[in-house]
Amino acid sequence: MHPMVKPALRRAWRERQTVQFGVAPAHAVMVGPVDTATGALLELLDGTRGLPLLREEARAIGLPDGQVDALVKRLTSAGLLDDPTAGGPAADALRNRAGALDRLRPDLASLSVVHPEPGGGTARLTARRAMRVQVRGAGRVGATAAAVLSASGLGRVEVLDGGCTEPWDVAPGGLPPEAVGERRDAAARQLVRRCAPDRPPRAAESAGPGTGEPGLSLVVVAPRDGLAAYAPDPAAAEGWIATGTPHLYAGVVEGTGVVGPLVLPGGTACAGCLELGRADRDPGRPRLLAQWRSGRRRSAVPACDVALATAVAGLTAAHALSFLDGELPTSTGTRWEASLPLLEWQSESITPHLDCVCSAYGKSEREHTSGFGPLHETMAG
Questions:
Q1: At what angle do helices 306-324 and 140-151 cross, to 10 degrees?
Q2: Which of 336, 364, 365, 362 has its CA nearest to residue 349?
Q3: What is the pLDDT of residue 87?
Q4: Using omega within 30 degrees of 0 as the cis cutoff, is the peptide bond preceding 341 cis?
Q5: Is residue 122 domain-resident?
Q6: Fewest CB within 10 A of the end CB: N or C in the chain?
Q7: Any domain includes 381
Q8: Same structural domain, 243 and 340
Q9: Is residue 314 a part of any domain in this protein?
């Protein structure tokens, strides 16, 4: 181990014997009392020395035996230490790709804050390289979310859509103006490649020896017509429910942006639960849905404010990455909505429905989350 005080956390003295690591309350930690000797040791924990060398240097400045080990244990318990040499061969391979690592250093720093164990950030970042994510939709939300996911170091980001890019598909961070007229799927593939910090791994490399193409870790459902995210058709998700593939809905309909629910098949509420629950509360809902889905609209171009779409895409990618890194974001079984012009994000919990075929009804929270813990394996897809 080469102990290093996490550089992502700003260090400041609250008073003479108390150090605060971190600015924002979500991850800030106070350590005290810190005497002069301990303060001197903190300066040595920069990741360039292993424990034997740290012990030698501590003795050279007159510190008693055991002081280094006690401080390392104390800071590790507080989630303040990282190890820049951790992670095994996969992490070493990432560190050897200097260009890719430089692109991902801000992401690595953020992951080191979120995951307290030494080497936890590196482990998540290297795990992303083996993941395969599919984005359904290459409009203002889907293409931008795919670009962000690719830039975050995911091994494979696939974008599925039909037709050709229209001028109104163009967005900052999404499809560029020069893609107008090109096939949407081809333009999205080029976008994903441009945003990736490194070349994508070969299919066999991602899946492991002899296992073929890796399974889908997540499907992001971000249709160009946001109605299919706001009121998703359960039939479209039957394959994901059957194979246990997690999927996350996102989009913009009229002046409202939605993120969620993230569906863990058999554990949390799905599109069918959402539709059945709404019908229970509003008997007129099925009739409205049939008309909304009929395809008859006065305008051929659905409303999609570019700023709102960009915000939805960013939040969608953040929730997706949180799940892929082993957490359960607040979109799990929940929808987040924000409407123009006030943009106040509000959440709605989606309850599993007794009559839904997804089998999520009656599951406890522990059952919901089992199998989706840190560094979960990819799902079949």
A1: 40
A2: 336
A3: 83
A4: yes
A5: no
A6: N
A7: no
A8: yes
A9: yes
